[in-house]
Specification:
heterodimer; A: mainly alpha; 2 domains; 0% strand; disordered N terminus; B: mainly alpha; two-stranded antiparallel sheet
Chain lengths: 292, 334
């Protein structure tokens, strides 16, 4: 901006009422409070005994905080199996999805072939389909394969649900590495495979990390499909476990302190992960529209 | 699976990440290099690369879809689950369903719920985005952190917390309202269907606003300050500048966000199911997702459940078509 223009915007800004800006800031703080409150309340309640939670008063701070609720949840006997189940399902989904999606992304961004357009169209359409529109049929499929209540059964469904978006995401990363880099390496005497592994693959690391986080979050949080295909007690993943923990507690006067401790245990790893990668996801699904 | 920002990080899109991750790699040059690559490699390779993905999609999505189409035209109830072969009944499941007033109740309820939620979410989200634009940096960061916290909450954990907030005996909402002088002691929010959906709307909006707010904020930051300054010099008020300059510039973002919200709010299964756990009569509060669940898993009527599922899929495809076309067009241009 040239110097001559600088004076005028400040004149404009001075005309804007101070009060307005103060009100906006107050409103902004209120919005922040409202949105953060449920998360705060979860953590706050998780440190309080049920006697305190039910004494009819509102305790904004966890005075006399204790880890009792966490130790009870941990010791309940059903948390650790659910954690193990969730970890198994999540990592199987993550690993297989990354390999499958990476190969497919290579195909659609490095090759032109018949059926490429149809595949992309299928990928885009599939990621819009709701689980609720297919879960009955998937339940029957997994049942007929005798895979109900197994890690493999639910992972198959998760992989299929996550692969389309992951392909779409990785496609952009692969296309972002100029093929000339590989070709230059080949001129210098590497084979195509070597060039790919030594040159292109390291450049794709951020893309693989981002897609991995996406697959992790999806599999870790998934509720609908798990509710349908994991019905036995021994095979619950954490979200399903949390639901039955709440139900069991509700049948004998809900112990909200324990329930909130259980929710916190599930939410905290996700929140930490999410804050870690947030810088990359703020511009969202719409940047194409912004630029266009 | 929930490809929704509520249930994860689906706000990601490849092109943004490409920019942040690999901007150093320079401009892409597929246009010039692709023909060389094609000549050099045998055409079998891309199909081999696609094979694993295609295989899993066929097994876990295409086959169930096929089964569902077939089953939706069969008499397939409890007897068939115990080995009796299903009988072909043509479109009778569809006729039965579409002449059943209850299905229409659920459809209308789902559509109203979905539209109300989508519009409220987008309105609030844009409001929050504008706030983030005008307030001091400190307040903006507070808003952003709060939004990220809400966005990151796993759906089941979030529902559990909200259930606790609205608990009729010890919930902080009733306590707060009572402290304000209204008598909400022991008020049950979920017993009445309207108030049930009010609570559901509060929760869904709380979960979905962060994605809209961040997208709209990204759109707002693209509006050049110079244009707004020029408008101010020409005497436009803040509101007029917003209405006639900012709004048209962020309209493309908003239309996509609104469309995605509509598609996502049509499938609020987990939220409704978990609120039904907490109270609320299922038959009075069912939306399409929970209705399919109760037909299929609940009463074992897979024929009818499949028919409703096909209906939901058709509705989703019809709604998403324009968006998918647009993504495909962007892809071809790149």
């Amino acid at each position: 901006m040239s110097a001559s223009v600088v004076t005028r915007p400040s004149a404009v800004r001075r005309r804007r009422p101070r009060v307005g800006r103060m009100a906006a800031s107050a409103l902004g703080l209120l919005v922040a409070l409202v949105w953060a409150f449920p998360v705060y309340w979860m953590i706050n309640s998780s440190f309080m005994s049920s006697i305190r939670l039910q004494d009819g008063r509102v305790h904004l701070l966890p005075v006399n905080a204790s880890w009792d609720n966490y130790t009870s949840v941990w010791a309940s006997g059903s948390f650790l199996p659910a954690l193990r189940m969730s970890l198994a399902v999540t990592f199987l989904t993550l690993a297989v999805t990354l390999v499958f999606a990476f190969l497919a992304a290579l195909a659609i961004s490095r090759f032109r072939f018949r059926g490429r357009r149809s595949f992309i169209l299928a990928v885009l359409l599939i990621q819009m389909l709701p689980a609720e529109g297919l879960f009955i049929a998937q339940y029957r499929l997994i049942g007929s394969l005798h895979l109900l209540n197994t890690v493999l059964g639910v992972s198959i469904l998760y992989i299929a649900a996550v692969v389309p978006f992951t392909v779409w995401m990785l496609r952009g990363f692969v296309a972002g590495v100029p093929i000339e880099l590989e070709e230059a390496a080949m001129v210098d005497g590497l084979s195509r495979t070597q060039a790919f592994i030594r040159i292109t693959f390291p450049l794709l690391a951020p893309g693989l990390v981002a897609s991995g986080v996406y697959a992790f979050l999806q599999a870790w949080n998934e509720f609908t499909v798990a509710l349908v295909v994991l019905q036995s007690d021994a095979s619950k993943t954490l979200p399903i476990w949390l639901r039955s923990f709440v139900q069991a507690s509700a049948s004998r006067d809900t112990d909200w302190g324990q329930v909130m401790a259980a929710s916190t245990l599930i939410a905290v790893p996700v929140i930490v992960f999410f804050l870690f990668v947030q810088g990359r996801m703020t511009s969202g699904l719409v940047s194409g529209a912004v630029k266009g | 699976m929930g490809r929704h920002p509520r249930s994860g990080a689906s706000g990601l899109r490849a092109s943004d990440l490409r920019v942040s991750g690999l901007s150093a790699a320079g401009p892409r040059s597929e246009g010039t290099s692709a023909p060389i690559a094609r000549r050099r490699r045998p055409p079998r390779v891309p199909y081999a690369l696609l094979a694993p993905s295609v295989a899993i999609l066929v097994v876990a999505l295409a086959y169930p879809l096929f089964w569902q189409v077939v089953t939706s035209m069969q008499q397939f109830g409890l007897a068939q689950q115990f080995g009796k072969p299903p009988t072909f009944v043509g479109l009778r499941n569809y006729v039965d369903l579409f002449t059943d007033p209850y299905l229409w109740t659920v459809v209308v309820r789902s559509i109203v719920f979905c539209l109300v939620n989508a519009f409220v979410t987008v309105l609030v989200g844009v409001g929050v985005a504008v706030l983030m634009k005008v307030v001091h940096a400190g307040v903006r960061i507070a808003v952003q952190v709060a939004m990220l916290l809400a966005w990151a909450m796993p759906v089941v954990a979030a529902m559990t917390v909200w259930r606790w907030l609205f608990d009729y005996r010890f919930g902080v909402v009733n306590a707060g309202l009572t402290a304000l002088g209204l008598d909400f002691t022991g008020h049950s929010w979920l017993a009445n269907p309207l108030s049930f959906f009010f609570v559901a709307t509060v929760i869904v909006v709380w979960m979905s606003v962060p994605f809209v707010a961040f997208s709209a904020y990204a759109g707002l930051t693209q509006v050049p300050d110079e244009v707004l300054e020029a408008a101010a010099l020409d005497g436009a008020s803040g509101f007029k500048a917003f209405r006639w300059i900012t709004m048209p510039m962020i309209a493309p973002v908003l239309s996509i966000v609104l469309l995605l919200q509509i598609i996502w709010d049509l499938r609020v299964f987990a939220q409704i199911r978990l609120l039904q756990d907490a109270g609320g009569t299922p038959s009075e509060t069912n939306l399409l997702g929970t209705y399919i669940y109760s037909l299929g898993v609940g009463s074992g009527d897979f024929g009818a459940a499949s028919a409703v599922s096909i209906f939901v899929l058709a509705l989703t495809v019809a709604l998403s078509w324009g968006y998918v076309r647009r993504l495909l067009r962007d892809e071809e241009q790149s």
